[in-house]
Design brief:
Blueprint (H helix, E strand, L loop, with lengths): L1 H34 L10 H20 L8 H21 L4 H4 L2 H8 L5 H16 L11 H101 L4 H23 L12 H16 L2 E7 L4 E2 L1 H22 L3 E8 L3 E8 L19 H10 L4 E6 L5 E8 L2 E3 L3
Parallel strand pairs: 1-3
Antiparallel strand pairs: 2-7, 3-4, 4-6, 5-6
C-alpha cells in the first residue's frame, strides 16, 4: 500500500509538470522571440511566431490536456511526439530562442516510449536543442558550424541519455519493489490463513492427544491392576485353599498368604502412583528378577532359575519395570495354566536390545487359539503385549499342547548409565 501511494504521488507530480511546464516555457520562449531583435537573420513576422506558438499549444492541449487518458496508449503518444518534434524543428528554424521550449521534448519522450526505447527518442530532440544552442540554422553556414553542432548534439545526447538511463533504472526498481511488496502481502495473507488452519489442527491434536493419553492410562492401569491385584489375590487364594485343605503346613500357607497380601497392597499403592515396582527400589534388574523368581519358586513349589548374559547396565525405569512385570506375568501364567515341573528365565544384555526368555516344560497350548479374557483369566498375554508396545518392545510366543511354552521379550537397550 505504501508503494502504491508513492507511485500515485509520483504520477500526480509528473502530470502537474507536463500540464504547466510546456505552456510556461512556450509562453516564455515566444515572449523572448518577440522582445529581442533578429539573430543572424531577420526576425519572422509576429503573426508567424504567434501562429506557430498557438498551433503548438493547441497540439499539446488536444493530445495531453484534452485527452489525458491517451497517455497510457502508445499509438496516440507516438503521433503526439512526432508532431512535437516537427514543431520544435520549425520553431528553432524560425528563431534559436525557441530552444527553451524544445527542452520539454524530453518530458514527452517518457509518454511515447517505454524503457530503453526512450534513448532512441533522445537523438532528434537533442539535435534540435543543440541547434538552438549553437545559434540556430544560420550558424551552420559559418566555418566549423556543423562541427560545433555535432559536438553540441553529442553533449546533449550524453546528458539526456544518462538522465533517462537513471530514470529507467529507478522505474524498474520501483516496479520491482512494488511487485515484492505485493508478493509479500500475498505471502502474509497465505501465512495468516495457514496459521489459522494450524491453530485449528493444533486444537484438534490436543484433543486427540488428551483422549489417547486417557486411553493409554486406562490400559496401563488395567495392566497394573491385573499384574498386582489379580496375581496377588490369586496367590492369596491359592495359599488359603492349601491351608484349608489340610493341617500340614497350615501356618506356612497362612504366613505366605499374609506376605502376599502385604506385597500386593504395597504394589497397588505404587501402581496407582505410577512408580517403579517395589522390587526395583534400590535394586538392579537382574537382582530384582532373581528375587521374583526365587519367591515365586518357593510359593509355587516349582523349580525355577534365572540366567543373566552380557554386561548388565541400568536401563530406563519404564523399560526395567516392563521387563519385571512381564516376568511376573509369565510366571503367574505358568502357575495357573502350565502344570510345569521346571521353569527357566534368561535375561540377555546385548548392544542395542535386551531380551527376556521365559521357558517352561508344562502342558503348553495352541498360540493360534489363545484363551479369551474373562473373570477366570486370559488377559495376561494381551496385557504383556500392550505394555511392551508402549516402550517399542515385542513379544513372541512359542508353544504347542504338551510341549511347554516359551515367551521371548525384546526391548530397546536405552540406558541411563552402566550398572556397577
Amino acid at each position: 500500500m505504501l508503494a502504491t501511494a508513492e507511485q500515485e504521488g509520483s504520477v500526480r507530480a509528473r502530470e502537474a509538470w507536463r500540464t504547466w511546464l510546456p505552456y510556461g516555457t512556450l509562453v516564455i520562449s515566444t515572449a523572448l522571440v518577440l522582445a529581442v531583435g533578429p539573430n543572424f537573420v531577420d526576425k519572422p513576422p509576429v503573426w508567424a511566431i504567434l501562429s506557430v506558438s498557438a498551433a503548438a499549444a493547441a497540439w499539446i492541449a488536444f493530445w495531453i490536456t484534452g485527452h489525458p487518458q491517451w497517455e497510457k496508449r502508445r499509438g496516440p503518444m507516438l503521433i503526439f511526439l512526432t508532431g512535437m518534434i516537427g514543431f520544435y524543428a520549425l520553431m528553432v528554424w524560425m528563431h534559436p530562442l525557441f530552444g527553451f521550449f524544445t527542452w520539454t521534448g524530453y518530458l514527452f519522450i517518457g509518454l511515447a516510449l517505454d524503457g530503453f526505447w526512450r534513448l532512441f527518442g533522445v537523438l532528434p530532440v537533442a539535435s534540435i536543442a543543440a541547434l538552438s544552442q549553437v545559434g540556430g540554422v544560420p550558424t551552420l553556414s559559418a566555418e566549423g558550424g556543423y562541427i560545433f553542432w555535432g559536438f553540441a548534439i553529442a553533449l546533449n545526447v550524453l546528458i539526456a541519455g544518462v538522465m533517462f538511463y537513471v530514470e529507467i533504472k529507478t522505474e524498474k526498481n520501483s516496479i520491482r519493489r512494488a511487485q515484492v511488496i505485493v508478493e509479500l502481502a500475498e505471502a502474509n495473507r497465505k501465512l495468516e490463513t495457514a496459521l489459522k488452519e494450524n491453530a485449528g489442527l493444533h486444537a484438534q491434536l490436543l484433543v486427540q492427544a488428551r483422549e489417547a493419553g486417557v486411553l493409554d492410562e486406562r490400559q496401563r492401569m488395567a495392566g497394573e491392576i491385573h499384574d498386582v491385584l489379580a496375581q496377588g489375590l490369586t496367590g492369596i487364594v491359592t495359599q488359603l485353599e492349601a491351608a484349608e485343605a489340610g493341617a500340614a503346613g497350615r501356618d506356612h500357607h497362612l504366613t505366605a498368604a499374609k506376605r502376599l497380601a502385604r506385597e500386593s497392597l504395597a504394589e497397588a499403592r505404587r501402581s496407582v502412583q505410577a512408580l517403579r515396582p517395589q522390587q526395583l527400589d534400590g535394586t538392579d534388574l537382574p537382582d530384582a528378577l532373581g528375587e521374583v523368581v526365587q519367591t515365586w519358586s518357593q510359593r509355587a513349589g516349582v523349580n525355577a532359575n534365572l540366567t543373566t548374559t552380557g554386561v548388565p547396565r541400568r536401563l530406563l525405569p519404564e523399560i526395567e519395570a516392563t521387563l519385571l512385570r512381564t516376568a511376573q506375568e509369565g510366571l503367574a501364567n505358568v502357575a495357573k495354566h502350565a502344570s510345569a515341573g521346571r521353569v527357566g528365565l534368561t535375561l540377555s544384555y546385548m548392544e542395542d536390545v535386551v531380551t527376556l526368555d521365559v521357558r517352561d516344560d508344562g502342558s503348553g497350548f495352541d498360540p493360534e487359539q489363545p484363551r479369551e479374557a474373562s473373570e477366570e483369566g486370559g488377559y495376561g498375554l494381551h496385557a504383556m503385549r500392550e505394555r511392551l508396545t508402549r516402550i517399542a518392545g515385542s513379544l513372541e510366543v512359542e508353544s504347542e499342547p504338551g510341549g511347554g511354552t516359551a515367551l521371548s521379550v525384546c526391548v530397546p537397550a536405552i540406558t541411563i548409565g552402566v550398572a556397577a
